[in-house]
Amino acid sequence: MRIVDAGENSLIVYLSEYVTPDVSNKIHYLAHEIEKVLIADLIDLIPSYASLLVIFNPLTTDHFAIRNKLLAISLEECHEWIGSQETITLPVYYSEDSGEDLTALAEKKGMNIDDVIELHTSVSYRVYAIGFAPGFAYLGEVDEKIAMPRLNTPRMSVPRGAVAIADRQTAVYPTSSPGGWNLIGRCPTKMYNPSEPPYMPVSVGDTVRFEAIGREKFFALGGKL
Amino acid sequence: MAIEVIEPGFLSILQDRGRFGHHRLGLTTGGPLDLNAYRICNKLLSNTEDAAVIEVTLGGLIITATSDHLICVTGAPVELKINNTPVSNWSCHTLIEGDSLSLNAGEKGLRSYLGVANGFEINLDFGSVSTVTRENIGGLNGDKLSAGDVLHCKSIDDRPKLKLEGEQLPVVEDQASLRVIPGYQYENFSKVDINRFFSTPYKVTDRSDRMGYRLLGPPVAIQDKQLLSEGICLGAIQIPADGQPIILLNDRQTIGGYPKIGSVFSLDLGLLSQLRPGNSVEFSQISVEMAHNLIHLNEYFIGSLKTTEIL
User: Which of B37, B42, B49, B252 lies closest to B132, judged by CA?
Assistant: First the structure.
């Protein structure tokens, strides 16, 4: 466990530099345990692939106390995932029209667009984290053959439903927002609905598969370009 | 009992202290960018600490009162008028039924806070009034205010009319010194880049908003190493591949994968949020312990402000 300062009232705990289901299990176990210990001193937690950001009330506690409480949690007792484990299939319209970076990605990888689609739809992804924006599920891991680094300069606006790749992560943008990932298609499924629960179709620990659909089906399912 | 929005101006949004405890759904916090100005507004109105106010960016807001209300404006100095008569900022004023109140942007600063006694009565989304338009939550319909919006609030009562005067008035500048707590991937940046970052001014660009302030200056080189996306705290200084720093503010994304050199001290974010494109910032380092002490001192500062009753 490596604990690093993040800000004046937050610490970030790193358990690994690599993504594995075991590391993910441990992160969520740690989040669960620290929540029980900190109670009112805790403002919020952000579990991710291999890290946990702990945000605390700086008027009632400090970095030293939080660090000690984190170090006192034993991860030995965490063996398996106890949260949600659904499988969800998300339809995606992959094309140049709906994925601005699809052609560039295919060219960079020396393959054609269909190969990219085949590789993206052939993997079962685990939901490792939810964040960035409401309903934004970080899915891993993308086949190494189509892994692409983020754009040098993030876009000011990425459309709702955009399906994207960053390194070996993939995701669906739930709302229009700035973003630096490579866009390869568009998903018509609503990933975030603030008006009533369930607010989002997936939870951390779930499995997601992508299914390629054509332009007509995309519009029929309520998709917009 | 309410006020009605006649002109919303450039960007007027309802804000309380923020939305906390929902990062795991991906929800950001929102909340006032200039937290001290917001807190003083509520203090002058003898409100609770988290009463809902309107954050007005760059003025332009005009409202009318449908009954008698006590109001106060703090933050970036604006040309404030009741029925065309100038009145002062950082001071309570009585609006009589039918009165109109207008805020016009001054020469410096961006964010002003219009509060009303008891706060605006707005339904809570995930426990907070704070408007985050990107998430479509908070405020009236998850959106900024528009002409014709009616904001319910209590009418005037016998609470004191307070004002803040003299040296206690916070000053809004067109440049800011930002104190940074080194953190996150700080150790991964080269000494040369760190020294340059902390010794050169950066300019605020026009690609700055409630989500983050994008700066322009000498690029900071980042390691080629891929970074797993991780949780982002308020004030985190993100360095994307082009090396131009982005300071993440209240409406920030909760998770991101760009390296971060550390985080700007929260009280200085209030100063930053008052800067306009073209203004400049410079950075210095402080320890976590120093930041912690400064937060406690600020509580004392807010708690011991000497307000004057207007008789």
Answer: B252
